[in-house]
Design a protein that fits this description.
The complex is a heterodimer of chains A (298) and B (449).
Chain A lengths: L1 H36 L1 E4 L9 E4 L3 H7 L2 H33 L6 H13 L2 H12 L5 H8 L12 H26 L3 H9 L4 H12 L1 H16 L3 H8 L11 H10 L5 H30 L2
Antiparallel strand pairs in A: 1-2
Chain B lengths: L8 H10 L5 H17 L10 E7 L4 H11 L3 E7 L7 H10 L6 E5 L3 H6 L12 H5 L3 H6 L1 E2 L2 E2 L1 E3 L5 E6 H7 L7 H14 L13 H10 L5 E4 L2 E4 L4 H15 L11 H8 L5 E5 L2 H8 L7 E5 L15 E5 L6 H13 L1 H8 L11 H10 L10 H9 L11 H12 L8 H18 L4 E3 L2
Parallel strand pairs in B: 1-2, 1-3, 9-13
Antiparallel strand pairs in B: 3-12, 4-5, 6-12, 7-10, 7-11, 8-9
Helix pairs in contact in B: 2-3, 3-15, 14-15, 15-16, 18-19
InterPro entries (chain B): Bact_solute-bd_prot1 (IPR050490), SBP (IPR006059)
Organism (chain B): Nocardioides turkmenicus
Keywords (chain B): Cell membrane, Lipoprotein, Membrane, Palmitate, Signal
Chain lengths: 298, 449
């Protein structure tokens, strides 16, 4: 079957760049991390005799799982996700619906304006906001102070609001663009039929438009949840700016980063921490795609 | 404003001693070009044997110093590569490269980082490689700082001597005497807080791990010591408690500004004259002029207040030249290291025409440093004389093998100090971190409390 082989060959050729990159950039690092996670640097006495690489089995996993700081890092991203993700999606849907109404003006300008923050790299965005949070220099705090409100945006109370605010600022525009594009694809005759039947703007939005874009919402929900799991740059910047409650191991990613690059030879622990996070992310993704698929079908 | 939110105190310290400047990259390129020219050119032709070394550093003026070294040596040629400052990623770069087997032959390590590198087995023992006469040219305390477990691991370049910077003009305006003891300082802090709304004598100060450590060392604390082949942790000794109660008391009485050390916010307060002192170290003298260019003539320099009024100082920064264990030619690397820390042609570019105020620990080299420092910002005060006075009270200090990692934990905890958390909690967390990590690495460790 020469024709069949040609088709298979073409398919392989087209798909191979993906697999090559997948192997080099995903599978190989995971494999190496798995290898690293089974070893640790050990020395003895005062430690000035150097170290040796020792096979420690699952000790690194036991060590990170018994570390309160590692466990609480999951609590932090869980709180962040539970509050931040619905807020992000809800606000994005709301604004996208507003933009889609017949009354909206300057739609292109608004879309662009809302999207621009997404183009700002995460670290820069975090730096800008952290500047606005810093008591002695922030114009916001100065104005509020002038009106008699003394607030400490880097303090314990504002940890989550301050962080979610940065992420919202960056993410809203992206989600809005996706929802708005899906809204454009909603058949106009369905909307017209609804209006003919006497539905107002609100009913049209809630009962026609939202159900029709739910696959887009589900997709962005997965993205937002994965982003929450991988939270890194924003808390890192806040930690550096002395936000009181944000430690150098505040999220699982930060924990792994700190263990690998600022602690002495803890690559094993860092690898173990990263693998556990990757497992969790894979597990969650599977659960979501497995059980959310009926709902996802628009 | 030269600082940004993103830089921590340690980064700033690293930079202040040895700031990366624009153009430094270009200079390193020049140096490399020069190196290649020398290595490949006529100088090597007579002996034929040229040892090539690689030197990694972030320190300012290193490129020019290396160039001078290469010009004056036929048998050793050094390739300089610029890396990010230590705590900015430079240390991880060095240890990662060594893991991969392509690290440098010589690199800079601060005293707090040196034990970590030694413990990781990255540093060559140079005890037998430096002759006694050469070693005598260096301050004894600095040599001790580079000595761990009775072996010399690095050649010391400078040491951060605790120093107080104070606003002369505002001290006079508010009627404050320059405090000599911590009691005087506390009294002045409470007076300023009471009489001048919005103004504080200092900020929390010990919210920076390295500063807290220097303060406890100044009082005589020994967080790390060794007995036989066992590390002893003494985070709860009398001296530490004294320092802890002192700063906690000032913070509780709202006598200190709560702007975090090294933050943009702190710089803003200091530039507006809302904070009257900065309790830092010798390296800051040059950096002060960069940070507050409008304040020329307004800052005074004085020895750090002490508990008994006598000169006393902890070790607040300072760096060394360490030779890699993988170095092909340890002798050549040691020769380069001693030259870089003592020769006039190395010191002059490192002092950057007066833009560094490193308290260099080689005695001859210190004279060069002293001469090159421009004290016009301080009204031609004998700044090095003040450093020398403080250095006469330099306390013997041992840094532990997990300092960098412990300081991360300590820094996290210290952020809460002055905002509901206590210094005692932060210090206890640091000790727990040190004990956990040291025993995790298989070291013998005992808490003394």
């Amino acid at each position: 079957m020469p024709g069949g082989w040609r088709r298979t060959g073409a398919a392989l050729a087209l798909i191979s760049p993906f697999f090559l990159l997948f192997v080099v950039a995903t599978l190989a690092p995971i494999g190496y991390a798995t290898y690293l996670s089974l070893f640790a640097e050990r020395s003895s006495g005062l430690g000035f005799g150097g170290t040796e690489q020792v096979f420690v089995g699952l000790d690194n996993f036991k060590q990170v799982l018994s570390d309160d700081r590692y466990l609480s890092s999951y609590l932090h991203i869980a709180i962040f996700a539970v509050v931040g993700v619905p807020l992000m999606l809800g606000l994005s849907v709301f604004v996208a619906l507003l933009l889609d109404t017949a009354y909206a003006r300057a739609k292109r300008f608004l879309q662009l304006g809302l999207f621009i923050p997404h183009l700002v790299p995460g670290v820069i965005a975090a730096m800008i906001w952290v500047y606005l949070y810093t008591p002695q220099v922030s114009p916001i705090i100065k104005v509020l102070g002038g009106m008699g409100f003394e607030i400490d945006l880097l303090g314990h109370t504002f940890t989550y609001p301050a962080l979610i605010n940065i992420v919202l600022w960056m993410g809203l525009g992206y989600n809005i663009i996706i929802y708005y594009a899906s809204l454009q694809a909603v058949p106009r005759e369905v909307i017209e039929a609804a209006i003919m039947d006497g539905a107002g703007e609100f009913r049209v939005a809630w009962h026609i438009k939202v159900p029709l874009i739910r696959s887009a919402v589900a997709l962005t929900a997965i993205f937002a949840a994965i982003a929450a799991l991988q939270l890194f740059a924003e808390p890192l910047m806040m930690a550096k700016a002395s936000a009181r409650s944000v430690t150098s191991d505040w999220t699982p990613n930060l924990y792994a980063y700190t263990a690998a690059f600022t602690k002495s030879g803890q690559f094993g622990a860092a690898a173990a921490a990263s693998l556990l996070l990757a497992l969790l992310a894979a597990g969650l993704s599977w659960v979501v795609t497995r059980f959310a698929s009926p709902w996802e079908k628009a | 404003m030269t600082d940004t939110n993103s830089s921590t105190g340690a980064e700033r310290r690293a930079r202040s001693r040895a700031a990366l400047r624009t153009g430094a990259l270009a200079l390193s390129a020049l140096a490399l070009a020069a190196t290649t020219a020398c290595g490949g050119g006529g100088t090597s032709s007579e002996s034929g044997e040229v040892t090539e070394l690689t030197y990694w550093s972030w320190t300012k003026g290193s490129a020019e110093a290396v160039e001078a070294f290469n010009k004056s040596h036929d048998d050793i040629q050094v390739n300089f590569e610029e890396i990010p400052s230590g705590v900015d990623g430079g240390y991880s770069k060095i240890s990662d490269a060594m893991k991969a087997g392509n690290g440098p032959d010589v690199f800079n390590a601060e005293y707090v980082a040196l034990p970590s590198f030694v413990a990781a087995g990255n540093v060559a023992d140079i005890t037998e490689k430096v002759d006694e006469d050469t070693l005598k040219g260096y301050d004894e305390q600095a040599v001790e700082l580079a000595t761990l477990g009775d072996k010399l691991w690095a050649v010391p370049y400078d040491v951060g001597v605790q120093t107080m910077f104070y606003r002369k003009d505002l001290f006079q305006k508010y009627g404050i005497e320059v405090p000599k003891t911590w009691d005087d300082f506390a009294a002045a802090a409470r007076k300023v807080a009471k009489e001048q709304p919005g103004v504080k004598l200092a900020n929390l100060t010990v919210d920076d791990p390295a500063n807290l450590e220097a303060m406890t060392q100044q009082a005589g604390a020994q967080w790390f010591s060794t007995s036989g082949d066992t590390w002893k942790l003494g985070f709860n000794d009398e001296a530490t408690q004294k320092v802890e109660k002192y700063w906690q008391g000032l913070a509780d009485d709202k006598a200190l500004s709560t702007a975090a050390s090294w933050s943009t916010g702190f710089n803003a307060e200091a530039s507006k004259g809302k904070v009257l002192t900065m309790l830092l170290a010798s390296w800051q003298a040059a950096y002060q002029a960069d940070t507050f260019p409008d304040h020329s003539g307004k800052w005074g320099v004085a020895p750090m207040p002490s508990w008994d009024g006598q000169p006393a100082s902890g070790v607040f920064g300072g760096s060394t030249y360490a030779v890699s264990k993988e170095a092909a030619d340890v002798d050549a690397a040691v020769e380069f290291s001693t030259w870089m820390t003592s020769n006039e042609d190395a010191i002059t570019p490192r002092m950057g025409d007066g833009t560094s105020s490193a308290y260099v620990v080689n005695k001859d080299a210190r004279e060069v440093a002293k001469k090159s420092f421009k004290a016009d910002y301080y009204g031609d005060l004998d700044v090095y004389g003040i450093f020398e006075e403080s250095a006469s009270g330099l306390q013997p200090v041992t840094f532990g093998p997990t300092m960098l990692s412990m300081n991360k934990t300590l820094g996290d905890e210290l952020k809460k100090f002055g905002h509901g958390g206590t210094l005692a909690e932060a210090i206890a967390a640091a000790e727990a971190s040190a004990q956990r990590e040291m025993s995790g690495q298989g070291l013998n460790v005992e808490a003394q409390d």
